[in-house]
Each structure stands twice: as C-alpha cells, then as structure tokens.
Amino acid sequence: MLQLKKMLGDAAVFDGQVLNWITEENLWNIWVSKQYGGLELSLREGLNKLQSLARLDGSLGWTITLCSGANYFIGNLQPETAKEIFTNPAIFGGSGGMFGTAEKLGGNYKLNGTWRYATGAPYLTHFTLNAKIIENGKEQINDDGSPKFLSFVIPANQVSVIEDWNTMGLKASATHSFEVKNVLVDERYSFVYNTFYLEQPVFKIHFSVFADLTLWVNYIGMAEHLLEEASLPDKPEWKDLQQAIYSANEKAYDFAKQIENLTGKEEVITKSLINEVHQSAVNSVKELSKAIISVYPYAGVKGSRESHELNQIFRDYFTATQHHIFTK
C-alpha cells in the first residue's frame, strides 16, 4: 500500500502501474458475480473496500466507486448480453444525467447527445448513458408526464471524450464529458434500473440506496484520511470531526446491515427507508463538511501548500461534495 500511495500523488490521470494494480486486485468488479469473473462482495464488504480506497486516495476511491458502480449494471443486463460483454475485461462508466435521445428504429435505437461527468473516462471500455425515447419523431411520455427513457451501454470506440474535467480535486478521476453522434445500438444493450437478472442479494438493492451508500463511504474515508494525515493538536474542533466520522460510520453501516437483512430475506426496501437512507447520508456529509471547514484553519501552512497531501485531501473532498446526489 505504501508503494501504491507513492504512485498516486495529484496527477491528472492514473499511470499504468496504478491501473495494473486496480486490474490485478479486480477492483473494477467488486460487485460483479463470480460467474462473470468478479469478486462478488456483499454490500458491507464492498463498502469497506471502497472506504479503504478513499482513505488511501480520494481519486482512487471515487473512480473505483463510480466505475465498479457502473459495472454493477451487469445485473440489469440480459444474461446473453452480460456474458458477451464480460467475456473480456470490462470497465463501465458514464453519466446518470438525461442529456441525449434514443430514436427507436425497429429493434435498434439511434443515440445522440452530449453527457456530462463520466468518471474514469480515459480508463473505460464501455460507456453507460440515459436517453429519452423518441418514436416516430415524438418524445415518449410516461403517465405522470415524465419523459420515458432507457439506459444503454456502448463500446468506448463509439464515443468521443471531451476533456473538460478541470477541477481543484479528484483530478485522476478524469470525470470528462462525452459525445455520441448517430450511434445505432441494438435494443439488447439497453437496460432499466432496478430490473435485475442476477440472483445475488446485492442486485436486489434499490439503485438509489446503492448509490447513496457507496458515495457516503467515500466522504467518510476521505475525512478519515484528513484526520490521520493532519496529526492534529488537541483542539475541540478536531474532536468534532472525530465525532462526525464516528457517527457517519455507525449510521452508514447500520443501514447497510439493515439492507442486507432485507435483501437476504427477499423483503421489499420500502420508499420510506429509501428516503431515510438518502436524507441520513446528506445530513452526515453536511456534518463532515462543517467539521472539516471548522478544523482546517488549524492545519497550519502545510494545509495551504498544493504539494502537501493534506491540501490534496481537502480539495478532493470538497470536489466530491458537488456530486448532484448531495447537492439536490
């Protein structure tokens, strides 16, 4: 781990050694079932792994979280499609935004649009995206008035990456935008969130809960890293941060245990529980952010040096707080 830490730094992209290590550890596939070559970790095992990576380096934890979270969509793919794609090593990533269209043409869809925030863009073999459905020139609408949409997975060679990730932190996550122009894709490569074809309990988790928990442990891990790196004096503010971290860990893993119990018994994750997980995660990140802001002035001049690891952790953490799940 020490050798890996030396390789990470504050670079704009991960170098070959880091990417080789990720592949050797099979971290892109922490949720993927063993039948497709994955680690098939349980929810709490996976959360622990992601948190430990974020504690080591923000960009590393964030990138593995978002890309392994995209590989999680293997559970949404039809079995024949999943088998076809995962015959070779696959790294998914993309956008959860509705930034494009899918025009239905028989058994195919023609995709067009520009999507933002594809974490790990330079490392991906496939991009995932959401697109509004167009039929006979008309946008399709659900009964509640919302646009009908499908999610798609397409090979990276059908995508143009727009290198616009110019942020103060999470640099190596390389969360660029991407463009798709008139790409024709078979409907077999479309999928629907929360419709699963694999039997492992982790695939029975409502996707918003999965997203909340996996991102939440990243904030906790980065906060733990900051606390560890600072070697802080005995100030009350540091104790506030320690308490915020303790509380976040307790709440996140209590929810994870509860979710595991429900999915193990094949019981429904209620809407009220989904909302409770989300609001608890949002409030917890607010507490962590407040504690970090109050304590950071005591970090000394080293905290202001861009070359210092403490400064990088701070920049990574507050870049991560801009994720739309925690700013809505």
First-last Cα distance: 36 Å
Give the total of beta strands.
8
Radius of gyration: 20 Å
User: What is the element string, with H for helices and E for strands?
Assistant: HHHHHEEEEEEEEHHHH
Q: What is the CATH top level name of the domain at 205-328? A: Mainly Alpha
- Give the percentage of residues in beta strands: 15-25%
* Total number of helices: 9
State the CATH architecture of the domain at 205-328.
Up-down Bundle
* Spans where pLDDT lies below 50 across 5 or more residues: none
Mass-distribution shape: globular
Would you identify the CATH H-level superfamily of the domain at 205-328?
Butyryl-CoA Dehydrogenase, subunit A, domain 3
Mean model confidence by pLDDT: 94
CATH topology of the domain at 205-328: Butyryl-CoA Dehydrogenase, subunit A, domain 3
Q: Give the proportion of residues in helices.
A: 40-55%
Q: State the secondary-structure class.
A: alpha+beta
The largest sheet is: 8 strands, mixed
